Amino acid sequence: METYYGFVSTSEDALALFEACRLGYKQRVPRRLSDGERAAIRSGSIFVWEESESGMKRWTDGRSWSPSRVQGCFLTYHEWEGRRRAQRHPSFHSMHGFNLPMNMHNMHGQPIPMGIARYGHFIGGPTKAGSTQVQYGFPKENGMLKKALSIRTADGKKLHIIAYYSKEDHAQRRLLTPTTDPNFPKLVVPPNLYPDMSP
User: Fold this and answer.
1) What is the bridge-based pairing of β-strands 74-80 and 158-165?
2) Rounded to two decimals, what is the model's pTM?
3) From CA 19, how far away is CA 4, in angstroms rounded?
4) How many CB atoms lie within 10 A of CB 136?
5) Is residue 132 part of a domain?
6) How many distinct structural domains can be found in the chain?
7) Which GO molecular function, any one, fits this protein according to its record (predicted)?
């Protein structure tokens, strides 16, 4: 079900994949992945899908991910062990059984456990009781990273790329990109077909 095995580094790589799918050299994902297909996701798995064609507005892979960060034209995520929402509480001295050292404070002067301070993602402000709601998780050992990109074509189609990779594979340059892969079709991307991105 993979559209391509490799890595997407630049907007040119993304455009090459979109165009290869449009011309039939590569296949877009036509539906949601089955449980077995999700389990087969590996470092280097790249999926391209179009919303109306697949019936999917949101990609699901059954894994937990960190909040997104912007990296060029992509959003990036780190695989996490889990994401939870802490109970509202007037202080952070004890949170779901975690008794961690207090060496940082939030903007209201409340102590924050080290685990929350380092990996926590604040999604709410102070409540009426003066507490803060926190969503948090912990990086998964040897977990993957994920890159995502969404654009709209000139004819109104909503296209997406989801790419998975490991830090080690990326650091060792084990994964080819569409623009460096000698076996990837050499294509000229029409300049006005993807107005959200420039070749």
Assistant:
1) unpaired
2) 0.73
3) 13
4) 25
5) no
6) 1
7) DNA binding
